Amino acid sequence: MTKESALAIVQGIAELKEVPISDLQWLVDNSELSIIPKGEHLFAPKMAADRLLIVLEGAFRIYALQNGQRHELMEIEGGSITGLLPYSRMKEASGYGEAKVDSQILALHKEHFRDMICNHHPLTEALVHFMTSRVRAFTQFQQQNDKLASLGKLSAGLAHELNNPAAAVVRSSNALKNHLQAIPDKFKQVMNIKVGDAEVDVVNDVIFRRIQNGGKSNLTLMQRTALEDDLADWMDERGFDHAFEWAETLADFEFNTADLDEVNAVVPDHNLPAVIGWIVSNLITEKMVNEIADASKRISELVGSVKHYTHMDRSNDKQPTDLHAGIRSTLTMLGYKIRNHKVAVNEQFDPELPLVPAFPGEVNQVFTNIIDNAVDAMEANGGTLTIETRKDGDFVKIDISDSGTGIPPEILAKIFDPFFTTKDIGKGTGLGLDVVQQIMKNRHRGDVKVQSEPGKTTFMLCFPLNF
Q: How far apart are CA 17 and CA 51, in angstroms?
């Protein structure tokens, strides 16, 4: 391709249609033509961004590597502008630009930018306008990508949180179903025993006295082992067939040999195995029902946390907000990640903390971004996440601290900048803390600051109490 034909293509680019032909001629004259073969890269991460690039023919796929996998961002075809633009602060490429086919490009080195800015104002203006549109579109794309990534993390964590109680419900319900099939035989054995009301009342009193603890023993391992041995010995001495098996269930409810003696006092020895078997059967049923109830309650609490976290049933207006509830629902959403990284949570909450006028969903997004980053900072060897809340005059202040390695002083001032991230490519967009700052300052008239040293990084949030 000649520069004459390149000029014709450049003239047809929508963003440059209003630029005088003399400026476009200068652009083409000072640029270099080159061919990028199929499969080769026009740019790659860490490569210096030092040229304005115009794709004349062909196409490029723009992608990033996330966790070793390609994540395609967009495609640029003939007639597209990319690369470094006037007044851009871009220093290096952040993704890959791979030629889909043999492609022709026009490249203007940045050493010509001063001449362009000083002597070719219409061209400069057009390129700056294109740059602002590109930044706006890229920001929206990255914010959406960041939200989807956060949603993916929360969904994965929630799936793990729900898996255990859901599996417990299925396991206990199946076990209960099988257990109930054996009830008729035990019922027949008990029905053949002729006892009076007084004797029945004694057995009932013993059962319900022990059922009150719900099968949640407070015994230590040594105490429980000793209790099981005593119960098993008591039943073994009387010729019970299932002494050791029943002893385990009786120990769950902290039955002791005194309870068995109390039953034995009103039940003849030859009927005792049937009665104790019936007691054990009732305890097993009680235990399984309690397990199902506890697991179902946990699922309900998780669903409630999701509902509170998303505020799906609330209006979008600013409203009095319980920040403690927001923090706790966020910790629930990130619970699996916190436990997986062996992070201990230290809550130092002011019990008298007032409600704060806020947008609850956005405040939870602030908590999520900061806490998620804090957990990542302690990824190597676990640590402690400390969250402190307090009222300070007309403000509510929240400090979120981690015991990670800290943020180096040379980058501490940059962490709230858009697209700045210390994470590896594909692990962070650099928008999380920028979003935090926008939500705190623009939406809540509050503030967010950070202090860091090795072993402690603290994000300090400040919410005004007045609407």
A: 21
Q: What is the pLDDT of residues 84-127, one digit of tens each?
A: 888 888 888 888 999 999 999 999 999 999 999 999 999 999 98
- H helix or E strand, kind and range, residue 224: helix 221-237
pLDDT band at 418 (very low <50, low <70, confident <90, very high): low
Cα distance between residue 31 and residue 6, in whole Å: 10
Task: List Cα–Cα distances, 380 to 111, 343, 376, 386, in angstroms.
Answer: 44, 11, 8, 18
> What's the rounded mean pLDDT across residues 133-143?
64
Beta strands in 277-359 (DSSP E): 319-321, 343-348, 356-358
Q: Which two tokens stand for residue 176?
A: 């209960």
pTM of the model: 0.48
What is the tens place of the pLDDT at every residue in 229-259? 999 999 999 989 888 989 988 988 889 999 9
φ and ψ at 456, to 5 degrees? -160, 120
How many Å apart are CA 232 and CA 104, to the nearest integer?
Answer: 86
**What values do phi and psi take at 70, rounded to 5?**
-70, 135
Q: Counting Cβ atoms within 10 Å, is residue 65 exposed (0-12), middle (13-18) or buried (19+)?
A: middle
What is the rounded distance in angstroms from the CA atom of residue 34 to the CA atom of residue 99? 13
In 343-446 the beta strands, taken as DSSP E runs, fall at: 343-348, 356-358, 383-392, 395-402
3-state secondary structure of 59: strand
Cα 428 from chain centroid (whole Å): 14
